[in-house]
Design a protein that fits this description.
5 helices; mainly alpha; single chain; about 100 residues
Length: about 100
């Protein structure tokens, strides 16, 4: 769907933004990132239209959700990488691949 097209109504834009926002709750935080980027211009750069406040709210919440997920994942990756050898067999059970050699 081309959001710049005149064939796309504001209601369709709001519905698509809501759909992406709710999909993010299904452990698909990258959809929140896409939603925030894709609808940013619609919510903040375009002249006022009906439903723009809803898009602004969803864009902000999508950005916050994507940011929190990113921070959480980076934190987990750093903690796991630094402590994998100390955690022994427990960390090995969580790993898809087990490095060979000295920890």
């Amino acid at each position: 769907m081309d959001l710049q097209s005149t064939k796309v109504t504001p209601e369709q834009k709001v519905d698509l933004c809501k759909t992406y926002f709710y999909l993010g709750f299904l452990f698909l935080p990258f959809v929140w990132g896409i939603n925030a980027v894709w609808f940013y211009r619609e919510g903040f750069k375009k002249p006022e239209f009906e439903g723009q406040k809803t898009i602004k709210k969803l864009v902000i919440m999508s950005f916050i959700g994507a940011l929190l997920w990113t921070i959480g994942m980076v934190t987990w990756i750093v903690i796991f990488t630094l402590n994998r050898a100390k955690w022994g067999a427990t960390a090995d059970y969580m790993s898809f691949n087990i490095p060979i050699g000295q920890p």
